[in-house]
Amino acid sequence: MFAMLSTNSMMSTSFVADFLAGLSMGVVIIGVALTLMVLIGWWKIFTKAGEAGVLSIIPIVNFFFMCKIVWGSALYGLVVLIPFIGSIFMIITNFKLGERFGKGLGFGLGLIFIPFIFIPVLGFSDAEYIPVEA
After folding, report:
1. In whole angstroms, what is the distance from residue 112 CA to residue 100 CA?
2. Would you call 94 exposed, middle or buried from its count of C-beta atoms within 10 A (0-12, 13-18, 19+)?
């Protein structure tokens, strides 16, 4: 009887391990797919705004060019280095990004809270870039 209990215990342990391995692999696949969608969405947003799409995938550089798209000057990107103010600036920048493409307050909230959905929507939609007035 103890031998059978031991075998069943090993089977259930193996099943749990296989289940968790499969589950984690599914999470990784979904994460990679969402990341690719967001990267392609940013590429399309940059292209719509007249910037080179490749700039959207270069870390740090992409933020300065996003500031150029949203605010009209890449130097606004330096504001993010100021503690606390930088966080508020990022929130406002997301709202302004939506405005630059003719979207409203709700879309700005979407860009802040669920960007992995709203960035591809902005990139693939027919929304047109409204340049910053000088």
Report:
1. 15
2. buried
Q: Give a yes or no: residue 57 inside a domain.
A: yes
> Is 63 part of a structural domain of the chain?
yes
Which range marks the domain in which residue 11 is found?
2-124
pLDDT at 109 over 70: yes
**Tens of pLDDT along 47-56?**
999 999 999 9
Q: How many structural domains does the chain have?
A: 1
Q: How confident is the model at residue 18 (pLDDT cuts 50, 70, 90)?
A: confident
Q: Are 29 and 104 in contact (CB under 8 A)?
A: no
Q: How far is CA 76 from CA 29, 66, 68, in A?
A: 35, 10, 8
Distance CA 79, CA 68 (A): 13
